[in-house]
Amino acid sequence: MSQGQAKQLQLRNKLRLGTWNILSMLQLGKVQLLAEEMMRLGVDIHGLSEVRWDGQGHFTTLDDHTIVYSGRLTQDMSGVTVWIHTKIAGELVGYEPISDRVLVVRLKVKPQNITLIQMYGPTTAATDEEMERLYKTCLKQLNKSPRETCCL
């Protein structure tokens, strides 16, 4: 939906969410391959982990899907992304890149907006401090988000 359309996304409509540890989005053609897979599966919003992109921001694909991402300052491990299908991309209200492991995305829907939190937890090799820091960050985001929050 484009922003100019009067019809707003309705919560009573089915919204298909997915998550995937993608193990890197650095290969040429991976964005297009993922778009094809999303279409095949009928996924509207896809939370991706370990994309390994640097920086933070958003962009629109050639197929008009919206990708919001949050990574480290340089290409490395981790990184999270929320991929929004073109039919609802116009409902993106905003996003907050918290870290390379946590990304908050807000969508305009009726009767109440929804907040999605994409998170990527460290492996079991992580220290207790790393795990505690991630849990505190997620809890902080949940506490400051409205009740309709969904964690991916």
Would you mind describing this structure in some detail?
- This protein is α/β, with parallel strands linked by helices and 152 residues long.
- The protein has a single domain (9-151), classed as Endonuclease/exonuclease/phosphatase (Deoxyribonuclease I, Chain A, 4-Layer Sandwich), CATH 3.60.10.
- It is 19% helix and 33% strand.
- The protein has two helices and eleven strands.
- The chain has helices at residues 30-41, 128-144; strands at residues 9-10, 17-21, 45-49, 56-60, 66-70, 80-84, 92-97, 102-107, 109-110, 114-119, 149-151.
- The strands form three sheets. A five-stranded mixed beta sheet has the order 2-3-6-5-4, with no helix packed on it.
- The longest helix is centred in the C-terminal third of the chain and has 17 residues, at 128-144.
- The protein is globular and about 45 Å long.
Helix and strand sequence: EEHEEEEEEEEHE
The separation of the N and C termini measures 23 Å
Q: How would you sum up the major sheet?
A: 5 strands, mixed
Q: What does the overall shape look like?
A: globular
Runs in which pLDDT lies below 50 for 5 or more consecutive residues are: 1-6
User: In CATH, what is the homologous superfamily?
Assistant: Endonuclease/exonuclease/phosphatase
Backbone structural class: alpha/beta
Overall mean pLDDT: 85
CATH architecture: 4-Layer Sandwich
Helix content: 10-25%
Instruction: Indicate the multimeric state.
Output: single chain
Strand order of the largest sheet: 2-3-6-5-4
Tell me the number of structural domains: 1
Question: CATH top level?
Answer: Alpha Beta
Strand tally: 11
Compute the gyration radius: what is it?
Answer: 15 Å
Strand-residue fraction? 25-35%
